Each structure stands twice: as structure tokens, then as C-alpha cells.
Amino acid sequence: MSLQNPTFIPGPTNLPEVLRKACDMPTIDHRSPLFGEILRPARTGVRAVLKSACAEVFVFPSTGTGGWETALTNTLQAGDTVLAARNGMFSHRWIDMCKRHGLRVDVVETPWGEGIPAARFEEILTVDTSHRIRAVLATHNETATGVRSDIAAVRRAMDAAGHPAMLFVDGVSSIGSMDFRFDDWGVDVAVAGSQKGFMLPAGLAILGVSPKAMMAAQGENLPRTYFDLRDMQRAYANDAYPYTPLVGLLNGLNLSCKMLLDEGLETVFARHARIADGVRAAVTEWDMPLCAASRTLQSDTVSAVRTPAGYDATQIVQRAATTYGVAFGTGLGELAGKVFRIGHLGSLTEVMMLSGLATVEMCMVDLGLNIRLGSGVAAAQEFYRYQPTTIAREV
Ligand code: PLP
């Protein structure tokens, strides 16, 4: 018998059986009308998940990183300047990608654990009267630190400065799990991946692109071939791809959007918030701080838990994997060894989460940390039982 524990890494997330089956489909001719029956509703579904009426949705065989590259190469030219805050490993990697593409980056160094400093962005944009800055890059949810940034505040900063830069948002670990408002926030490119809120295997870079960014994409920008939005747009006019699409994953995406919309986006977000609150109750009971510097910054999809100084947090993750067969996230970059990360997004219930908290507790006790078995679990249980959900769902 093969037994499978849920995973608690912040993506790839647990794969619901119905989505696994939707991805596992017989070969169809991707140039036949059958394919359009999959592609069209999948793109429409993503647009609804993005809360957008204006976004053109693109889905590339790739991952979130390919989504970053799509955003940059289609809209910017070598030597262009972008503005970004570095507050964790993923914002760092996006900045690094910009530099490797010959872009200049105005980097606002931000402590890991803090969110995007919108007020500082406003100052920088206000003095940029020549509009040298072409795009503002914002990582909505820093998966490395468990920090959620306020994208509405970034948009307000841009508007207050009267700056015409485009707004690119990395929603890889937020879209489909935490509130994301493409239109309301005036987002120009939103980037997601299939393996987090969409509850699918990795393999798709999912993008929403505004009319303004589509205009920018028509120009002679950075070199692009595979990720050229113009080729994809032309192919989409015929419900096709410029190359062989990942039909099974697109079929999964179609169903995954339907599942999110059937559950109701606000219900999905509330479920994530409630599960996250239970995790935070447990972490408080363990007397371990979260990396996120304040309550409003705490992510509802991932918690980065700081272990006592001098203690190697990676041991906990290794112990969980080797002894109990459960996956948690390690610390990344400057947080390596200092935090372990609990992913709580995607196909997850409160009861599944309790098993993850129980596992972490066993690991910490096994490894000699001063934790009482059941203490964090009890705190989460108290929270979950007083916040009842009507659970009749397959998540
Ligand atoms: N951005 C964020 C916030 C992420 O969490 C990740 C991956 O975890 C990425 C980008 C990179 O995405 P991928 O690994 O799918 O290329």
C-alpha cells in the first residue's frame, strides 16, 4: 500500500485527486477544435481568479520564473530602468534576472521580514520626473519570509507620484489563495505558476497582461522567442499555441479555476486566512517569532518560523522528511538555517494542517527544543473549533 502524507512546503502544493485525473488525459490533437474547448475556459477562468475584466491571459509551458522573464522581455528594452524592493529571496532573484537582461534596477534594500516600502517608492517615483523608470516590480507574497506586501499601497504610491510606469506583480504564492485584484490595483502584468494556489503540478507560467502592457509588448524590446506574447496572441486567435501546448495541465487549469470559483474566491481566501491563523496560534504557543515583522505583513499562505539563535532550523525540516515523511520548507538565502517554513496554501483543510503542526512538534521535541507535545496543536485546535466552517468540499 502506498500512503501519502500531505505536504507543507509552500508549493508545489497538495494535488487533489480530481485535478490529478484532469491532468492525466489521453492524447488529443492540439490543432483540433477539441483543444479550444480546454484553452478558452482555462483562460477565462484565470481572468476571473485575477478579478479582471481587462487582462489578457497567457499560459506558457514554464514556471513562475518563466513568467518573470515573459513580463520583462516583452515590455522593456536593454538599458531601461525598473524599481524594486529586495526583501527576500524571490524579489532578489527577480532583480537578478533584470540585471542579467541588461536592465538597470533601482533597488530599495528592505529588511527581510518587512514589506514593500510604498512610501519610499512614492519618493523615488516623484523625483523621477523624466520617467526613466519604466516598471515597478512588486512581489506580492515573499515566499521566503512569509511576508505579504500591500499592492494597493504600491499603486497609490505610483498614482500619487503621477508616474506612468507599469506595475508588474509576482503573485506566484498569492494568486488563487489570497485576495488579488488585477483591475482594482492597476496591475499591468501579474505572474503566477500552476503549482501553488492553482493546486496543480508545476509546469505552467500563468500571466495576466493589461492593455497598456500589451501595447508595450508590440515594440522592439528585449530578445524573446519562446515567451513572445505577440506569437502567443496570434496563436490564441485560433485557439492554438505557437508550439506544442501542455494539454493535460491546461485541462487541469480549467478545472482548478472552476473549483476555486465554485468554492467562491472570498471563501477560498477566508479558508487560507483561518488555516494561517491556526498556524500562528501554534507558533505563538511555541514562543517562536515569525519572520514577518508585524501582523499585517503575515502571509496567509506561508509562515517562516524563526528558531532560537544558534539553532539550525534545517534539522527540523530534515527530521520531518526522514523520520515522518512530511515536507516543510527550509530557510532560503540569508534565512538559511534560521527559519523553517510551513506552507499552508492550496488544497488544504484545518484538519490536514493539524497533522502538520503535530509533526513539527514531534520533530522539535525529538531534537531537544523546549516544546511541549500538543501545545501548538491545542492552540490551533482551540482556534479552529471556534471558527467553524461548513465543510462539504473537496479542496
Ligand atoms: N516568485 C515567488 C514568490 C515564488 O514563491 C516562486 C517559487 O517558489 C517563484 C517566484 C519562482 O517560481 P518557480 O519556482 O515556479 O519558477
UniProtKB/TrEMBL annotation:
Any keyword Transmembrane?
no
Presence of keyword Transferase? yes
- What would be an example GO MF term here? transaminase activity
Q: Supply the PROSITE patterns for this chain.
A: AA_TRANSFER_CLASS_5
Residues in Aminotransferase class V domain copies: 30-317
Ranges that cross the membrane: none
Pfam families membership: Aminotran_5 (PF00266)
Q: Which family does it belong to?
A: Belongs to the class-V pyridoxal-phosphate-dependent aminotransferase family.
Protein name (Swiss-Prot/TrEMBL) = Aminotransferase class V-fold PLP-dependent enzyme
Print the keywords alphabetically. Aminotransferase, Pyridoxal phosphate, Transferase
InterPro entries, sorted: Aminotrans_V_dom, Aminotrans_V_PyrdxlP_BS, AspGlyoxATase, PyrdxlP-dep_Trfase, PyrdxlP-dep_Trfase_major, PyrdxlP-dep_Trfase_small, SP_NH2Trfase/AEP_transaminase
Give the species.
Vreelandella neptunia
Q: Which cofactor does it need?
A: pyridoxal 5'-phosphate
